Amino acid sequence: MPFPLFPGVYARGEDRNIETLRRHLRPWRVFFGGDALLGKYSQPSITQVYGKLPRTDVLEHLRQTLPAAHWIDPQDQQAFDALRGESFDGLVIMNTRRCRVPVEQWLSTVASGRFYLACPGYRYPMSHNIIEALAVGAIPITQYPELFFPALEDGKNCLVFHGPDDLTAVVQRAIHMPEDEAARLAAGAAAYYDRFLSPQATVSGLMAMPGREVRLRLVPFIKRGGGYA
Length: 229
Known about the structure:
Distance between the termini: 17 Å
Largest sheet: 6 strands, parallel
Radius of gyration: 17 Å
Strand content: 5-15%
Number of helices: 10
Shape: globular
């Protein structure tokens, strides 16, 4: 079973707006939105079990290495709300410990970024946010393309970094990428979602399976010591 959108998105019917949001204005070059609480999102299992950078490490590394003009981290709701609709040619960080958007505005907020910085989740790398980015054509910047089935492909439907040594360079590549190339990657991201992750693709795949017995692998990327099971 593919990893889904956040359940609240379905509950509010926001998934019905995906096609429209793919044509959304993209005032921010790169966007990250989510909880970034130190401790909660710096679990050792992310590195020790999966070999990835925890979310807080990704964000802190970029704070230290990106030019100050290329990132902005609103410190309260008012500052974030003032940024909405404003163009920013860099990384916008929305830490939900300080500011947030209602669930019914989440997909449109993700769609405000041409790229989406897909940081790992809490106990394992996969997170709802990268699925939502693919759905609305916000190009993921990710360290875990191999956790998808089939794997995401660098330069086709995402940008891939491998660790701290190349993280900043990949984000800078996104910031400076010509728009025609970015549009091609965005189309590739949306096409991947439609073919492999959408509810329609999931149901069609199940219906096409031979035999009378169907066995589902739920979150097959979980490893011993690196999840809830």
